[in-house]
Amino acid sequence: MRLLVCxxxxxxxxxxEIVVTGRPLPLPPxxxxxxxxxxxxxxxxxxxxDAALRQVAGLALFRRSDSRSANPTSQGVTLRGxxxxxxxxxLVLLDGxxxxxxxxxxxxxxxxxGVADARVTRGGGLLPGALAGTVELFSGTAPARVELAGxxxxxxxxxxxxxxxxxxxxxxxGGGVDRGNGFRxxxxxxxxxxxxxxxxxxxARGVVPLGEGEVQVRLAGHEDRRNRGLDGADSRVRGADASxxxxxxxxxxxxxxxxxxxxDFANRTLVADAAxxxxxxxxxxxxxxxxxxxxSLELRPAEGLRFGGDWRASEGVTQELxxxxxxxxxxxxxxxxxxxTAGVWAEAEGEIAPELRLVAAGRLDHWRLRGGFVEERVLGxxxxxxxxxxxxxxxxxxxxxxxxxxxxxxxALRAAGYHSWRLPTLNELYRxxxxxxxxxxxxxxxxxxxxxxxxxxxxxxxxxxxxxxxTGYWNRLSGPVANVTLAPGLRRRLNLxxxxxxxxxxxxxxxxxxxxxAVSGAFADARVDGGTVAPGLSGLRPAQxxxxxxxxxxxxxxxxxxxxxxxxxQSALWDDDLNTRRLRPATTLDLDGAVRLTGLMWLTLxxxxxxxxxxxxxxxxxxxxxxxxxTVWLGVRWGR
Length: 640
Hints:
Radius of gyration: 24 Å
Domain TonB-dependent receptor-like beta-barrel: 239-609
CATH topology: Maltoporin, Chain A
Number of helices: 3
Helix content: under 10%
Organism: Sandaracinobacteroides saxicola
Membrane topology: Multi-pass membrane protein
Distance between the termini: 20 Å
CATH class: Mainly Beta
CATH superfamily: TonB-dependent receptor, beta-barrel domain
Family: Belongs to the TonB-dependent receptor family.
Subcellular location: Cell outer membrane
């Protein structure tokens, strides 16, 4: 709050525009061969980055709930119907730094603020973990901005950002707090309560010229506390991030990054009785310290040629109390391990005919798993289990290639193929977990997931303010990690034979004076091939994977007022791998607007889920978890 007060007192003196790039190397021309969507405006009524990214149809978190009420471990992101698992199958980068959790692969969305724009590239990427696509986030450099708002369910949020010139460079500060009493997830019994949350983050970013390039430094910290609708069902995420990036744009293009992540996650799981009159603790994940370290280097010695290498090391250990009797834990578990991926890659592109450009890339990775273990013992007593996983390693070649043909200025036709991969997370390999009465066992023998895919698309852009993109694709994911039901109340992580998906995607954008509009739609026909491991799953859809998704956004900006509307739809989906628990379709409407009061001061009004649609998030067959109901926000904004 002190930061926000300082920003308010800074006054118009800091409103002068600061021109500092702080950006990565520019995209090579060959990037146009792959399906990508750029989001220039990430503002949405909830103020949530995860909600803003869902404007891209086909991009989904594991569940429909957002980063206020969901269990943080269900906040992994995927694309193109490649779901069915809470771990991310897409790689999230902020200023070139991986943001996926080093232990479990999910994303701490409340930790990501100060993001100005995003680029979502669908399909297999060059980096490990970019199995279904890559979500690139870019920090912004704004003069000064403060937002204060209050809303339904006792909600309140405050955020601020300030940038100032420092010599020939710049310093940006930002932070925010967000809290609320939450809403009831279940229309249940006496044991059910609201879902209070309290979240905060702070970040500092500096850009300093160095020779013919610049150094970009980012430091950030965050804390996220949530409750899951039962007294004591609390979770906590704490983290710190640091990164240094060097960018040189003249001569040889150079981009070098080193980064580090520290995380700690705690979570307590409760299960309610059938009448929902009482609840008991089944698992207390006391803490999960984890760390991730890495670096990357990209060189561009000549036009159309780039190559580089990168590495990432992850380590984490969960510490849990379980097997409760009369409310008292009787056993203690530790589980975790270490993983490492390192690889080199090269990409070349050029015109092979007039207006016909070819791009091709190859990559070779080495992966290693070490120190995997599970220990269980009676509290204050004897050891019950001491399991040590055999260390494993391997090599993984991948690559991609694409063509883009521009037969006329307004037209671009493209085709691409790719092979990508993902190493199972430490969480999937070593940590069993329980949700309610369902136990899911870990599996230290899980193999890496591998994806083969192809796509073709067309872009029509007769004007700089009008465009239409249509893409068709086919994917085959070999060895997908799934939570497979073995018996009632018991599941285990296993590699299935395959997951096959084909689909269509379309985006249209238009700007007409003060109006803008964008429409995004996606169809994904995803089918499981369980093989001999789970033959009963063959032909079914993966859990939490809709067949249809769409979004539409319209906005108007005037001299002293602005307004936007965001409509989103998801078709029905299944909550379980056996396709027995159906979640009905959901269509939501979000509205927001602002009116200038004076100078740089604005009055803001926003409504999430304006029609109060019942958004079904999860179900056990008898009870349905609900997503965010109608929420009204009123606030003020100072700055541009």
